[in-house]
Write a structure and sequence with these properties.
Length: 227
């Protein structure tokens, strides 16, 4: 796999916070073969509840640093070969990697120059259902679902309650977004925030949607400049 490395000892590590598009798997593998095979590297792991996070095969998630001090995850994201990716259990360095991703996107490096991987908006996301995407826009309407307590956020036309795209946070995930447990939260407090939402796009009824399960899936951005 493009995100796994086998050490001389035989131990296998999974590179944390990476998601490589299928089209770029060989680019990732080639990069790591050239820069890592036969080299001495530093392996950095972290623990949650006294155990390092592992993938479903039992491999430990790790960050790898080369002898020259360069960070392998940063190199792959900065070259536009991988997204900065997170899950509820595996997210500790995601926000740092997003800085590499922002530079790669701004310079149209690697996959960022292709429309299928570029940032999406409310106007073009409908064509990318059933894929991993990063959607940017302004929250135009938000509410808490009275049935299950989910917080739902629309990105659509200003002045309307219609959604071109939406993201939602189920009630059971909300505590991850606040330092204080069981903090009161009204979805409308985020109305007019400008955000990037990272995740798998599916359809909720007829609207493209992403379920947000942890804070690293969201970036809060400065409001766009009006010209």
């Amino acid at each position: 796999r493009s995100d796994m490395r086998k050490m001389k000892s035989g131990k296998i590590y999974r590179l944390a916070q990476l998601r490589v598009p299928a089209e770029y798997v060989f680019d990732a593998m080639e990069f790591m073969e050239k820069t890592l095979v036969g080299k001495t590297v530093g392996i950095y792991t972290y623990t949650e509840q006294n155990e390092p996070p592992r993938d479903r095969f039992g491999n430990i998630y790790a960050h790898i640093v080369k002898e020259d001090g360069s960070w392998v995850q940063g190199d792959l994201v900065g070259r536009g070969i991988s997204w900065a990716y997170s899950t509820p259990e595996n997210r500790i360095m995601t926000r740092v990697l997003r800085d590499y991703a922002s530079i790669a996107a701004a310079t149209r490096t690697g996959f960022w120059k292709k429309s299928e991987y570029a940032f999406k908006s409310k106007d073009d996301i409908r064509g990318y259902v059933n894929s991993y995407q990063v959607v940017e826009g302004t929250i135009t309407w938000a509410f808490n679902d009275p049935e299950d307590g989910s917080s739902i956020f629309y990105i659509g036309q200003h002045g309307t309650r219609e959604a071109n795209f939406l993201f939602y946070i189920k009630n059971r995930w909300l505590n991850k977004f606040f330092r204080k447990k069981n903090a009161a939260f009204a979805a409308r407090d985020w109305t007019y925030a400008h955000v990037r939402v990272h995740g798998w796009v599916h359809k909720l009824d007829t609207v493209p949607a992403i379920e947000v399960t942890h804070p690293e899936q969201l970036e809060f951005l400065p409001p766009p400049q009006r010209h």
